[in-house]
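Figure 3 (text version): structure tokens given as input.
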């Protein structure tokens, strides 16, 4: 009689052990693995931010190219090159200053 009771309890304990092991493995994969869900969400947000910034930069590049192409005046081209791209003439030294914070 006791032998049968222990046999009935053994599969129940085995099931609990398998469930606990499976839950631990799933928790490990979801939270602590090198490619966990938390990391994937963080990477997805970072990709969205980078793509948004990339779009802004492409728009800015298009605007600058249009500004350069539509202006035939070499002084305007030089001004855009100096302000936007920090270009300088040969032999010229550029000193950058920052406005004083009050």
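Below: residues designed for each position.
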């Amino acid at each position: 009689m006791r032998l049968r009771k222990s046999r009935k309890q053994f599969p129940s304990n085995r099931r609990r052990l398998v469930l606990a092991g499976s839950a631990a493995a799933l928790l490990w994969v979801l939270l602590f693995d090198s490619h966990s869900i938390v990391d994937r969400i963080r990477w997805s947000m970072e990709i969205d931010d980078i793509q948004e910034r990339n779009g802004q930069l492409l728009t800015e590049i298009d605007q600058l190219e249009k500004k350069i192409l539509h202006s035939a005046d070499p002084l305007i081209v030089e001004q855009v090159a100096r302000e936007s791209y920090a270009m300088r003439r040969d032999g010229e030294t550029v000193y950058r200053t920052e406005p004083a914070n009050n």
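The mean pLDDT is 81.
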